[in-house]
Amino acid sequence: VDKPPVRRVAIFGGTHGNELSGVFLVKHWQENGAEIQRTGMEVKPFLTNPRAVKKCTRYIDCDLNRVFDPDNLGRTVVEDIPYEVRRAQEINHIFGPKGSDEAYDLIFDLHNTTSNMGGTLILENSRDDFTIQMFHYIKTALAPERCPVLLIEHPSLKYATTRSVAKHPVGKYEK
After folding, report:
1. Higher pLDDT pick, 41 / 115
2. Where's the Succinylglutamate desuccinylase/Aspartoacylase catalytic domain (predicted)?
3. Domain 8-173, what fold?
4. What sign does the dihedral 154-61-97-111 (CA atoms) show?
5. Three-class SS state of 85
6. Whose CA is closest to 166, among 30, 7, 41?
7. How does pLDDT run across 20-73, given as a tens digit for each residue?
8. Which of 5-19, 36-50, 88-102, 144-158 has the lowest mean pLDDT?
9. How much of the chain is helix, strand and coil, in % rounded to 5?
10. How far is CA 39 from the centre of its chain?
């Protein structure tokens, strides 16, 4: 399949303000991004929920990782709009718009979990050849360490995650 190359990549940390691995990595790369830069690519580390990070809490008003749906992204900004809905609209403006040709090619959203699952990649679409090949590359590079892939595809769900703004959404969970 002839598809355009991946040129714009975002690395998100802090979608949940109490999941600190992604926060630390994003802050590190914002200060010294040489190790993530590649010729011919734009790689942007981004702190997704800075207010929740500052308070070290999952979220302020609602879960940022659940509000990237058309209703919330299209809401009129008023004074009492939940912080995370307003933030989702800002993120969609910067990295999207969701579902468009202008959207970032790849968003890699870094999370932590208390589950004993180790490093796990999250796949939302089993027909996304690029992401499947990328996961194969990552798994091969990490071998012999385990790196499971969790497929969360559902035929009637449209995901409302931060990463769903990109053409190729990737979630990474780490214990």
Report:
1. 41
2. 6-169
3. Aminopeptidase (3.40.630)
4. negative
5. helix
6. 7
7. 999 999 999 999 999 999 999 999 999 999 999 999 999 999 999 999 999 999
8. 144-158
9. 35, 20, 45
10. 22
Question: Locate tokens 């998100």: which residue?
Answer: 12
Neighbours of 87 (CB within 10 A): 23
Residue type, 137: Y
Quote the tokens at residue 86.
């307003």
Q: 95-134 burial string, b = 16+ CB within 10 Å, else e?
A: bbebeeeebbbbbbbbbbeeeeeeebbbbbeeebeebeeb
160-175: per-residue pLDDT in tens?
A: 899 999 999 888 877 6
Beta pairing partners, 122 = 150, 171
82: left (phi over 0), alpha (psi -120 to 50) or beta: beta
Q: Quickly count: other Cβ atoms within 10 Å of residue 58's Cβ.
A: 16
Side chain identity, residue 48: T
CA 166 to mean position of chain CA atoms: 8
